[in-house]
């Protein structure tokens, strides 16, 4: 190992020591009972709630996946995806946060999302809870796999050991498992606060230095001018291989005399494609890692401050991430030649333009992003099985200590499945995340909105809507989207629409909610906590 690598390792190692220390600090408090472990006893302040929601949401996707898309195909897809996510963040905080905070407490103090759904509809047979918990287990395991891919790429690149990708994936997974097991929700939320700041500082710093090295606006414009439709938000650059055919999947883009090759004239980015990207914002309404922060905020009076912090962080971070991809292409035009390798552009900028120790700290921003998300996924998946399936259905008389042990074992199993996903061969962080995001968004998003804002919503409709949304994601992704090019939209859009329609229609066709449910709905609407 070179001296440069050692200095980079010291920078990253210092950060990791701090994260583990926080896990140890909160271990005794967080392990006292399930509510403390899974929801922090609803004690999050505005800064912690806002930053942990956004940090756990964005993941390594923000520093690797999104810049990678911008680097490989230009503005089109990356810009409209960022717009959709930014709008989704604002609307979610604006209309969902307060109502969910109050309703989750009114609904028998629900501490998980499946628990809330079950209590909201007085589901005595726990069908809704079971279905929600299973959906969380499946899609969060896939989500965790995307973060472990990030670990593999990150450590492999930093230490020049891409051949040890699998080892690096396992190392990162064990690291996250260790401090999540120790500290639970409070440790996760407090580390997310630090990690959110790390992510924000890292992307701002890398963009600023990259902007300087690229020669400012004039230099960037000159270097990108010859790349067809690269900076056009209504167009897309189309990388081609040596035969001149459009690159697909893991195929390699041709580079001639240092110049990357694109389809002459590029391609238009249609209204349907733009709508497909904007649909990313719909996913926020169904993201458990974000919704749990709404449920855990100390008081509804703190939500406005949290919303301002979260929305500003999100807007700035997303558009800086897109710019990093464009600046990276201007500086290293022919360096990265596949969609998967393009996701390392942030790493190249950090390692090439910063002293080794400082580069280690900057690169820790990616580590922060991945850890802040994967710890949330492990914790939420474990709560789904331990609190919702095991205690809620299989063994209702289970003591708190047994529930905690089931949660820890579940974390281990989810970690193993996530590692398997990361080692499966699909190493595009952006694509793995998009699949899991769609699954959770379509399954839970419409139901959250109907649950909070339409008292006529019924239990059969909730079950049908959740099931149809999740199934549509799989059917659309694996089959329907391949029938015709016009059907090649992001699967979240049709999944979300179908789920909403099913909930609405089935609610009208089934017996209305009981008086107790209606009374509880009105209580939640007027409540202040």
Written description of the protein model:
The protein is an all-alpha fold and 529 residues long. The protein has a single domain (11-526), classed as Sodium/glucose cotransporter, CATH 1.20.1730.10. The protein is 73% helix and 2% strand. It has 19 helices and 4 strands. It has helices spanning 3-30, 34-39, 46-73, 75-106, 113-120, 127-158, 165-213, 216-224, 271-278, 288-296, 303-331, 339-342, 345-353, 356-394, 400-422, 429-453, 459-478, 492-509, 515-526, and strands at 235-236, 255-256, 259-260, 267-268. A two-stranded antiparallel ribbon has the order 1-4. It has a two-stranded antiparallel sheet with strand order 2-3. A hairpin with a 2-residue loop joins strand 2 and strand 3. Helix 4 crosses helix 10 (288-296) and helix 16 (429-453) packs antiparallel against helix 17. The longest helix is centred in the middle third of the chain and has 49 residues, at 165-213. The mean pLDDT is 85.
């Amino acid at each position: 190992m070179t001296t440069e690598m050692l200095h980079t390792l010291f920078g990253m190692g210092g950060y990791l020591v701090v994260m583990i220390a926080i896990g140890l600090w909160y271990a005794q408090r967080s392990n006292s009972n399930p509510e403390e472990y899974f929801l922090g006893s609803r004690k999050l302040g505005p800064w912690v709630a806002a930053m942990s929601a956004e940090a756990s949401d964005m993941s390594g996707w923000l520093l690797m996946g999104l810049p990678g898309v911008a680097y490989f195909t230009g503005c089109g897809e990356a810009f409209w995806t960022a717009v959709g996510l930014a709008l989704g963040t604002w609307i979610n905080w604006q209309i969902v946060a307060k109502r969910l905070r109050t309703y989750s407490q009114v609904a028998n103090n629900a501490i998980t999302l499946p628990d809330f759904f079950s209590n909201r509809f007085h589901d005595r047979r726990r069908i809704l809870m079971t279905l929600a918990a299973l959906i969380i287990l499946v899609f969060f395991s896939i989500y965790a796999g995307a973060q472990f891919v990030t670990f593999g790429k990150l450590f492999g690149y930093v230490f020049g050991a891409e051949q040890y990708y699998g080892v690096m994936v396992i190392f990162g997974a064990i690291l996250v498992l260790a401090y999540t097991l120790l500290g639970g929700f409070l440790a996760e939320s407090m580390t997310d606060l630090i990690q959110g700041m790390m992510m924000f500082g890292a992307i701002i710093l890398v963009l600023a230095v990259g902007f300087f090295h690229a020669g400012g606006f004039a230099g960037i414009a000159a270097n990108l001018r010859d790349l067809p439709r690269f900076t056009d938000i209504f167009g897309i650059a189309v990388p081609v291989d040596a035969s001149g055919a459009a690159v697909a999947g893991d195929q390699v883009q041709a580079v001639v005399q240092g110049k990357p090759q694109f389809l002459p004239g590029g391609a238009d980015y249609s209204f349907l494609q733009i709508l497909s990207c904007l649909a990313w914002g719909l996913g926020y309404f169904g993201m458990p890692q974000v919704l749990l922060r709404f449920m855990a905020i100390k008081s509804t009076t703190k939500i406005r401050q949290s919303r301002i912090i979260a929305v500003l962080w999100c807007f700035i971070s997303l558009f800086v991430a897109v710019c990093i991809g464009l600046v990276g292409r201007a500086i290293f035009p022919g360096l990265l030649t596949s969609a998967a390798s393009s996701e390392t552009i942030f790493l190249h900028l950090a390692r090439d333009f910063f002293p080794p120790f400082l580069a280690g700290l900057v690169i820790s921003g990616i580590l922060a992003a991945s850890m802040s998300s994967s710890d949330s996924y492990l914790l939420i998946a474990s709560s789904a099985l331990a609190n919702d399936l095991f205690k809620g259905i299989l063994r209702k008389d289970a003591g708190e200590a047994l529930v905690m042990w089931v949660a820890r074992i579940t974390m281990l199993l989810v970690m193993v499945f996530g590692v398997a996903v990361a080692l499966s061969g699909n190493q595009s962080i952006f694509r793995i995340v998009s699949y899991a995001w769609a699954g959770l968004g379509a399954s839970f998003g419409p139901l959250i909105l109907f649950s909070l804002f339409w008292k006529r919503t019924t239990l059969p409709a909730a079950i049908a809507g959740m099931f149809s949304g999740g199934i549509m994601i799989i059917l659309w992704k694996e089959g329907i989207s391949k029938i015709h090019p016009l059907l090649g939209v992001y699967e979240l859009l049709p999944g979300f629409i179908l789920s909403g329609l099913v909930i609405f229609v089935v609610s009208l066709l089934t017996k209305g909610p009981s008086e107790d449910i209606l009374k509880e709905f009105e209580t939640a609407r007027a409540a202040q906590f």
